Amino acid sequence: MKQIYAAALALLLFCVTAVSALADAPSVKIQPLLAEHQTVIAKSSRKTIGPAIDAIASSGLPQAQQVLEVWAAKNMWMRKSDGFFFIGEKVEGKTYRLTDFDNGAVVGEFQKGDLKQLKPNSGIRAMIATALVQFQLSDPDSAARADALQSIARDPSADQLAPLRNSISGEADPALKAQKLRLERLLTIRFGASDAERIGAISDMAGDLGVDLRASLNPVLTTVREAATEIPAANIAAQLIPDEGISREDAYALLVAAGLAAPVTQAGDIRAALAQHIDGGRVAGIPVAQLSDPAQRTRAYAMLATQGLVPPLVGEVEMTRAINDHVFYDRYLDPSAPVTEAAAKALKDIELKVSFNQALDLGLDALSLASIYFLAAIGLAITFGVMGVINMAHGEFIMMGAYTGYVVQQFVPDHTLSIIVATPLAFAVTFAAGVAMERLVIRHLYSRPLETLLATFGISIALQQLAKNIFGTQARPLTAPGWLDGAWVMNDVVSISYIRIAIFVLALIFLCVFLFIMKRTRLGLDTRAVTQNPAMAAQMGINPGRVNMLTFGLGSGIAGIAGVAIGLFAKVTSELGSDYIVQSFMTVVVGGVGNIWGTLAGAAMIGFLQKGIEWMNPSNTLAAQTYMIIFIIIFIQFRPRGIIALKGRAAGD
After folding, report:
1. Which domain holds residue 637?
2. 645 — pLDDT class (breaks 50, 70, 90)
3. Shared-domain flag, residues 501 and 634
4. DSSP assignment of 160-179, as one string?
5. 83 lies in a domain?
């Protein structure tokens, strides 16, 4: 009895397994479809393979995607005995294991001689990839769907539009759905079924500055230049008038290319033809000795042409007659005039907005550069503009601040915290260095500008060499915090990095701090007093030496903080400061010596001027700097006291 129950249970399990297997197996097999196109698939010719790929892709069978993927991967094999197709897997040697597409079962192992491997070339693989798009757009894996969208955007075609539209409603990922909707509009512009549909898509994308939109509109407006006896009933972009819209030579070349005129007879052709028809020392009855005359050569050639011995003579007269008898025009490749008109208008509007945004982007770049120059020059505005000390080592204080930030990051791995620590530390280091320099060198050289320049220049060289000895000549990284990575992207044209924005904000903060120190603190009041009249300030109980020391230290300390900011995007090397010292002096001098607002104006002027010159001559930045210096020299000739001249008693010093 137990044996009967066991047998019945085994039979029941077998039936359940069999039913499950039958349920999992496709009800419709793809093998008959492959057999129907067996000859074309086996031949693998790009010219004839299209219908077979389309039939597989549009079959609606669940096996279709696997067949196309296996085929593209060169893993599809045909069994020569019956022409059936399988998935091939090498076992060993020349033995291959074949798996059925329909049920996934292994059908056996076969020798390579009994099989034919399908090796589609790059053209056929591209066609298969296009056919696979409809499956990939609905793939459960979002990465596969994203790859499919990139593939369509990279190589759009009309047959991709329908599967793309079908996949939109079922897309669950909001970002991918937005990409699909945008891509559908772009494809509709080029491949829509009706003019109204295409014009509607153009209208929907109005105002968009995306490069992909312009890439979709440009093919719609592609033209071909043609010649004919009369203007055809086609979508004509423009009629061309010889010697106005088109040169005579180009116009006649169009006639020759279209078979509407014979090529102009060249002098070399005439000489070669005459040489071939010399008979008894004559050519067409004209003695050879007379053929040195161009008119006689032309006459002899014309006589040969009337006899049918050479092609007809085509000269200026024939060329003019042919040009006058024909019309020349640019024809849109797209046959729809309403669509090309809408596309032309949209592209014109886009180009206008792009030009405006390019100007805005250039302005933001100039503003960013101006803020960098202001940061580099604000310390010099104190030491040079207020104290009148020509400090050629100012750039090295910027370099010292950048290296301070680098050293701090070696001990504080958190980049945000390291910048917070490095900023006051850089001020302290360069403040101390500035005080030491003022006490040891500068105080002995006041009112002796040439000696000050030479002394500070020597200190500059010494500090650069010291930095090389300590840190080497290789650039050191000063890494910005992660939240400063990337850029603020307003559209496809305008963007500005977060580091540049942070430097701009820092420049504004420095401006406010400097104004507060000079207007609201005892040091600022003492500095202004000493600047206006040192002797009277001393009589009022102010120590000019101490004020000069602190002021010089303040300017040096600000240069150190500027070095930390500049080091976040520039290479930190011993030459870092020398890259900014010239611009710093120009900023202070052009803006107006002794005036912080003048320094700000000078930085803005130099930043915008340099960016403007670079925009006009983008391939040569050295020339841009040269033109900028020439302009500044001319500017100083007309306004020697700068943009904002210093007023009061100090203005005459």
Report:
1. 355-652
2. low
3. yes
4. GHHHHHHHHTT---HHHHHH
5. yes
